[in-house]
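Give me the fold.
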Amino acid sequence: MRTGVRPADAGGNGFEPLVKRVDRVSTAILATLPVHKTPRLVDWEQDYGLMIAPINRVIGREIRAVEYMHWWTFLAAYQEIGDCTFAQVVRIRDYLSRGKKLDKADQEWYRKNRHLVDFKRKYTSADDALMKEWGGT
């Protein structure tokens, strides 16, 4: 059985299913590990846009345009992305989750890029319906 990703249908995103699969697999793997409370540092859906460019750099081409890529290849490239905006976001999330003080440069970067670092709240359809009922958007 080949496990990988095929390009998107017209107008779609071929790597979106991969991102969801990686999220499910990583959640399943974490569930089997001994219980140690670890901070959440990555949201595969929210951080998707930050991951693609550095992974493209590692792979050497646009990964959304390849016909097929084994998911282990994707994960290997992900692990080698090096210094980039995504790595900076994860590093600052790690510092904040452990209560470490950010230096002045990191504080400034965080202040300007808080929308990238802070996790977005995900609402259920019931939450959305309730907010609409109350007049919110």
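The first strand starts at residue 4 and ends at 5.
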